[in-house]
TrEMBL record:
This is Iron complex transport system ATP-binding protein. It comes from the Bacteria. Pfam families: ABC_tran. Its main location: membrane. The keyword Nucleus does not apply.
Amino acid sequence: MSRLSTNQLCLAYGSRQIVLELNLHVPDGLITALVGANGSGKSTILKSMARILNPVQGGVYLDGKLIHRQPTKEVAKQLAILPQNPTSPEGLTVRELVSFGRYPHQKGFGNLSSEDNRMIEWALQATGMTMFSGRPVDQLSGGQRQRAWIAMALAQGTEVLLLDEPTTFLDMAHQMEVMTLLEKLNREQKRTIIMVVHDLNHASRYAHHLVALKDGTVLYEGQPEVVMTSRMLREVFNIDADVIPDPRTGAPLCLPYGLAEEEGATQDAIIGGSSLSEEREDRVQALA
């Protein structure tokens, strides 16, 4: 089942075509990761899903209705987006930032209701940011800052979260902090999460559903165990890599060892490189 989907979606910046006739169904209650090389259309698709970018043709559907024809506030009550590298005014406190998430629900002069305050406190608690609520956002660490922005998205009270590279520019510990939080939100609250991810091992570890894009087209889609193969990595990212089970989680682990050579010179390598993934898929099927 899918509340959020696209039908023959075409996206462009001016005369430059980015996405062509995209048909995508986002699984409800799961974490979906969009992966692909730079310029593959990942962030562009996310912007269209968030109603930030209008389609040239086709459309994005939310609960069966064209999202670009719905009022902005109504859409904001159903899905929230965390853009890449968000910024806030200097001196703005964490609680003030999180309160902005209640804007779609406010009426009149925008005074916070008891329900607004309840949602703000809940979002702060869910992200572990209660103790930082009075601190200026620009004085937080990278991981704390991302958690504050996620809290603002949660305060909207939506069932769908869109995140554009939520771990960009974070060190390894803060990356795990943010990804673990998203995993917890999905597991405990069944939030549908769609995120653009650059780190393939993060994508395969934390997502239930992978969408591999190249030139605005979906080349592979499905569970990480099916999508994350040596062949996919060569076709989508132009890299040669081994894919092995993570010794702790069992998720596919990408181990790049070189750039892929020209297609005509590597037909044997393509066949040989896929053998490891095929063996892994056989193991997955056997376990199932």
